[in-house]
Every structure is written in structure tokens, then in C-alpha cells.
Amino acid sequence: MKSFTKVAGIVRIIFFEFLLLFLLVGFIANLAQDIEQGTIGSDIVYLITTFILGIICLAWIVWSIIKPKITTESGMFSSLKKYAITNFCSTHPSYVFIDAFILLGYALLFSEFEPTTTLEYYRVISTWAFAISIPVLRLFCWYVLGLKYTREQTKGAWKPVMWFYVIISPIALLLIVGLICNS
Q1: Which tens digits make up the pLDDT trace of 32-81?
Q2: What is the DSSP letter of 118?
Q3: In the Cβ-directed half-sphere of 51, how many Cα atoms lie within 13 Å?
Q4: Is the alpha carbon torsion for 148, 6, 107, 18 positive or negative?
Q5: What are the extents of the domains in the chain?
Q6: Residue 71, Cβ density class (10 Å: 0-12 exposed, 13-18 middle, ≥19 buried)
């Protein structure tokens, strides 16, 4: 049960990765379309806002990977005092399975999508580039650069990932069955 309270940290990682992909991909795709159409500056406020927010999300994700730390989280079950405070690793190789969840989401999104415009083409290419670079960076920093914790610190770091999949699997299964039945 103690590892279940760490699911909030996993959800935070997913939120920032989806936000990063949404913001920076939107920036790149819209900038490419503006350059192609020669209308740079028509939506400058939108471009600057998405770029700045996207860079903030990217910086948070990269910082949590290259500067791993263990944070103290106050869990969802604050009434259960012994489970209320847990330690959460900012990065771990098992988090690649969370990144895989995001990749799977985008694979389903783009599975029947044929890009016909420059905007759509750059959106697909930049989404895959960012989505694949995060797990690659995570594994590179952990195994090649050695930016990791001690074995005692990471004991059970995979458990929040497991809990996330225990929660999300029935929902995903229902969605897949619904998509199959409707097609």
C-alpha cells in the first residue's frame, strides 16, 4: 500500500510529458506552417507562449532525469499516518514503461492518421522525436552516465509503475474493446 501513494508522482511525470509534447509540438508545427505560408508573426503571442511553457516542461523533465533526487511526497492517504509520507525517485529505468505508455498513446493517435499538410507532417515528426528522446535520455543517463541512486534508495521504485498499470489497464482494455466494436 505504501507504494500506491507514489502513483501521484508517476501521474505528475505523465502530465509534464504530455504537456511538453502538446506545447513544443504545437510550437514547431505552427512555426513550420507559418514559415511555409509566409505568415510569420500572425500568431506570435501563441507561438511565444507555447514555446516558453514547453521549454519550462522540457527543463523540468530533463532536470529530473540528469539530476536525480529522492523527494518526500505526501501521499493520497493522509488520514493513514504511516502511509502518508513516502520517498519518490525522480527517475528510474522502470519509468521507461511510463514513457512507453505515452508512446502507445501517440501511436494509437497517429495509427490511422495520414499527414496531408506541412502542419500535420511536422506535428507527427516532432511528436515522435520528443516522445522517443525522453526514454532514451532516461536510460542513457542512468546506465551510461551513471546518474543514479544506490540500490537501497531505489528499492521498490518500480512499484508505483506497477500500480499505475494496475489502475490504467482495465480502462485501456475497455477503450480498446470499444474501439474494436465500433469499427
Answers
A1: 778 888 887 677 888 888 889 989 989 988 998 888 777 765 554 444 44
A2: H
A3: 11
A4: negative
A5: 2-182
A6: exposed
pLDDT in tens, 155-167: 777 888 888 888 8
Beta strands in 126-178 (DSSP E): none
Backbone φ, ψ for residue 87 (5° rounding): -95, 140
Work out the angle at residue 133's Cα, subtended by the Cα atoms of residues 132 and 136, and round it to the nearest 5 degrees: 90
C-alpha cell at position 87: 520517498
Q: pTM surpassing 0.85?
A: no
* Residue 43 CA from chain centroid, whole number: 27
Q: Where are the beta strands (DSSP E) in 1-157?
A: 70-74, 85-89
Specify which residues 70 forms β-bridges with: 89
Determine the residue type at 145: L
Distance CA 16, CA 12 (A): 6
29 Cβ neighbours under 8 A, 6+ residues apart = 119, 120, 122, 123, 126
Instruction: Give percent of the chain with pLDDT exceeding 70.
Output: 85
